[in-house]
Amino acid sequence: MGKVAFLFSGQGAQYVGMGKSLYEQNPTARQLFNQANDLLSFDLKELCFEDSQNLINQTAYTQPAIFTISQMALATLKEAGIKPDVVAGFSLGEYSALCAADVFSFTEGVELVAKRGELMGVASGDGKMAALLGLDVEKATALCREASSKGVVELANLNCPGQIVIGGEAEAVNYACELAKGYGAKRALILPVSGPFHTSLLKETAQNFGQLLKMKNLNQPKLPIVLNVLGDFYHHDLSLIDLMIKQMATSVKWEASIKKMIEDGVDTFIEIGPGKTLSGFVKKIDRSVKILNVEDVASLEATIKALQN
């Protein structure tokens, strides 16, 4: 058997009810959830399991919630004796991966991610993001170049073949969507997010977040980790804090990250946390690898069974 990679879900994967079966049936998961709940300024149980106030899609709430559910799912895998050879996470999910690699503790992670969500939630301004379907990087870059006559618009997420997300100032992103068909795009869809994440418009927010990061005593990763900013493995002569700061305002090189892991011998990917968005991306990058996920008790049991076979 080849290597196993754990992939951690990003923002957008949230749904009401996420983590509920883990909370109800696994004492370790429940303990983590309660720890996070004590640290946060809102009722995590109400948010994740009921969301009567419709807050789950607001960045400041979404980020600590997804981080917590992902760490609960990770803990249940660890209890089953399943360990990764490498970890990576998509955008917000990178913080789950860093926590899995012991860069910081769970409680420090909750604090960091809550602050990150809060800052990104207010950083939105007049920005937006859009998914371009059916374009390669070259054409998407040329499209952004033309649309930038209306303002800032940049490549934000390089997800998988035929799916690139752009972000920037609203007028420029709208203009890029109008031009997209002319560049060969099948579709251009405005995404329901609160800001132009992973673009230069978030540089100031990233620097503000960096002030908190610099106060933390971060460890070097104890596991190989592939970072969004690099699309490659992190190595110790790079500044981890600088890369974490940069991540918020730089494009997510997801396709390159997955290809790099496969090149390194990974043949099994386990998506950890809510949803199967990353599994879908991996499938489009390489159909020959095994893709599993853990977000609740049923998927945990299915993943354990698949790995035993």
UniProtKB/TrEMBL annotation:
Is-annotated flag, keyword Transferase?
yes
One of this protein's GO BP terms? fatty acid biosynthetic process
Q: Which of UniProt's keywords are assigned here?
A: Acyltransferase, Transferase
State what protein this is by name.
Malonyl CoA-acyl carrier protein transacylase
List, in alphabetical order, the Gene Ontology terms for molecular function in this entry. Answer: [acyl-carrier-protein] S-malonyltransferase activity
Swiss-Prot/TrEMBL catalytic activity:
holo-[ACP] + malonyl-CoA = malonyl-[ACP] + CoA
| A GO CC term attached to the entry | cytosol
Extract the InterPro entries matched here.
Answer: Ac_transferase_dom_sf, Acyl_transferase_dom, Acyl_Trfase/lysoPLipase, Mal-CoA-ACP_Trans/PKS_FabD, Malonyl_CoA-ACP_transAc, Malonyl_CoA-ACP_transAc_FabD, Malonyl_transacylase_ACP-bd
Q: What is the lineage of its organism?
A: Bacteria, Bacillati, Bacillota, Erysipelotrichia, Erysipelotrichales
**Broadest EC class?**
transferase
- Which ranges of the sequence are coiled-coil? none
Which Pfam families does this entry report, sorted A to Z? Acyl_transf_1
Instruction: Family membership, please give it.
Output: Belongs to the fabD family.
Q: What is its EC number?
A: 2.3.1.39
